[in-house]
Write a structure and sequence with these properties.
The structure is a homooctamer of 146-residue chains. By secondary structure, chain A is of the alpha/beta class. Chain A has six helices and five strands. Chain A has a five-stranded parallel beta sheet, with helices on both faces. In chain A, helix 1 runs parallel beside helix 6. The longest helix of chain A has 22 residues.
Chain lengths: 146, 146, 146, 146, 146, 146, 146, 146
């Protein structure tokens, strides 16, 4: 429970809140994450030569990003998977399915309004949290409770 | 390639088109699928006792449905994963991630407008199709071409 | 979902009720089970030579029985695990843990009074049923619902 | 043999005896364990919102606890599994089954009176001990004997 | 328990006794075995060109034989491993280790005199038999006992 | 040994010779193979839309072909991997590496001149044959020899 | 992404360029590689006794080399696989197939002229680079980009 | 190649020769081994209570020893397996089979007289050495050769 992967939404500061909250609790945790800089992420493959075709440009960048994501997912011992209220966020659900197949425990972080559309994702989760603070509490309990 | 799983959208007839198309080509294929009757699926857990709490009712039903989905996903040798233009469809992306982790090949089926939000899902796919007819063509080629 | 293993209690007729209920529904299911004849099971190892020492006699018989149990558990695609109100039934919980580690879905079957002592076992289960009829309903839904 | 997991009974001091005994022998061992504070363990999920329903409250807490248990079980290289004379202790047998499926060696620790009900659990164990002192002896032998 | 592999000694008729015994009991079992014709086995690689060097001739033949042995060992659900009183029979112990690592149950068949030198091999076995008749009894029990 | 995959060179009739040779020996073998029609194989992805860019056209077709190749490689119990005297044939070596990692036995089929460049590929092979007739002999021995 | 394996061509300085480039970027990476001294590699098995037969001499050396290659391939979290313009380089394609089967991400490094013969190898790769500098850029992005 | 397991013969000083030889070469290697003190090994289980029955005494001790052997075998990245000229040494062949099934590379160490009886064990080995010095040479090459 010391190597969590933080997956999903990149437009709010939930990652920072969890990381800072754990630091304040003195927890020895090494978080990993995909690239969260949107432009950098979209342009990840451009160094290998630009493509005019949108599909292949995205494809190339997504595969470069997948090197890190795949490695992180396979090495983490817990994933926190965040669904916000914007965009499709299919990559977050993809990561959840990846964890489920590997048997890696994950916690979802989302509002009540997404209970129904996330029921399959939550069905394989170890917990559903609605705030970064709850995630910090769960991590603290899991790591420090005697 | 004879045991494909059909995952995703349940509001258009893409499943029927693929199944009928394969029959017309004389392909010996045994398709599997999650329960696609929306009300039946949502009520799957009610037989075990009703819950007033929305989360737990969904949770119970989703787990009952997961018995079949998980078994189908682990036994299929190919998945066709369809993203339509309605709803969140996080379960389809979840199935894609599950296949990716298992190393099971999958083909996505979606319109051009979803190229960007599905780039991570497509990055692990063996192919991206835009119509059921294309999927039938790929299945026919894969099974019958000498 | 066509090869369920029936684990646990051997002193009531829950196995027969499930098997008969599925037959009445016309479900094509092949159930497997450990040896449920108590004396035969305890004496399974005697053919290899009797032991005066209780531990070793039990040990030898338990290992003979484990040949079948282990094979059944690894080949089944679903386990139904029954906890009754007598005896320790640690073997049933052992089978549940075995399934959990393999990723094989299982359903528990027990009364309300065991909710608390079975919370860890139920936490990894796909469903908790309180009667054989409910199990039949779940199997019927899982196998036949479109 | 340096990362044993201590599973089972939480109402006697067998964990402390083993840990202290190993320290006295100068063995470099890092033990892990589930949360053994009964009330804290039962309330593990309350931080995510209280449930009136007993089953779901237990379910939520058990899953939070399972994050640590599952991680510990998969990382340990040996489990010591203790069965005392109170309560159902199905979670201990569940952990034994989990280890058996993973191929992780485990040692049971229990009195003679449980030989028969634990025969399936003992059949997959590497050893049966009746006192914490014996466990310490086995650990010492395994780690230090030339 | 319907696909046993018969490993080890090729100079007595223990295989035939087990196969015939099972037929007499009406058991539906499909046995597999390595090539038991000694000369044919030693010459298995000669078709690929003869080698003057003893080591390489044996090496080439052993690898050809390993195609069948490896496939049989990985597909069997039980192995019967026989140690007689002649020759080194390291290949039989090798097969036992292979089964142990795969988690495939095996039964050893040997006389009392070999208890001590086979203690490591027996430690991972599900049973130790001293006659083909005992093996037939165990198979009959495992397959037919209710 | 009844489900061999035939990998590699598509410009000579080695596949036909092996298949015919096995038929003449009355062996019940079900061979599988990638698409061996060169133009069809190169155009496999065109049905999903043509690409002007050479890399992506090849990429798309290679992935469609990989659906069948990957499935065949994972289901086969033996691979015959042929290296001829033309072209780079990196796909044949790729298949060999894939088999090696899966632990699937394979036999190489190539002339003496390739002993040195194929030494790594041969090091993981079960046998090296120089003619289709030798492969048939090995298959016959492996399947029929008592 | 901190333990890359460098596979393939040993006649140009692409390894040195990547290693030096990463050092200049301050990346903490531990590269591994097969033995790249050609004569030493060919003679790896000679210490175990010389063979007159070319095939067996190569075989013995290739197996000694495979101890390191196999260990490196299974421990690396990324492979860079280089195809140059000389020799058959089947060992590089073999390594690529090995990675593909293990699910280990790899990047190919080759010129445009090899797009077509490497299409199957590239189809399973995460990226195709044409210069060591591009590989350094991808590593830098993957390891350091926020 | 830095965590080799030394398996087999305990009556000559081959282990010491290899360990000392590697030290003299300055190789950073951490060797592991089963208990090699014969009396201690045979008495490993006595601490859990003595058995009059020879089989069960050996069984209990062998299982205690298996805790360490199994852990070592699964953690090592190379095994050196020695066959001497005394005793049955079935445990050494068992360890070889265990490694073969896990895909762990191993080197055999034995005299020429055992070429024929060890042909199956050698067929899965990466090398056959006839002296501890040769093993040291192979380790040095594998670890230090550029």
């Amino acid at each position: 429970m010391n190597l969590p992967y933080l997956s999903g939404e990149i437009h709010t500061d939930w990652r920072e809140k969890i990381i800072k909250g754990c630091e304040e609790q003195g927890l020895a945790i090494e978080f990993s994450s995909a690239v969260t800089n949107h432009e950098a992420s979209d342009a990840a493959g451009d160094v290998l030569g630009k493509d005019d075709n949108n599909f292949w440009r995205d494809h190339k960048s997504a595969k470069i990003n997948a090197i890190r994501i795949k490695t992180n997912l396979e090495q983490c011992d817990l994933a926190i998977i965040r669904f916000g209220d914007k965009y499709k966020q299919w990559n977050a659900a993809f990561d959840a399915g990846y964890c489920a197949a590997l048997g890696t425990p994950y916690i979802t972080l989302h509002d009540e309004e997404f209970i129904h559309p996330l029921k399959e994702v939550d069905a394989s989760a170890m917990a559903w949290a609605t705030s970064p603070e709850q995630v910090v509490d769960v991590l603290k309990y899991t790591i420090t409770q005697k």
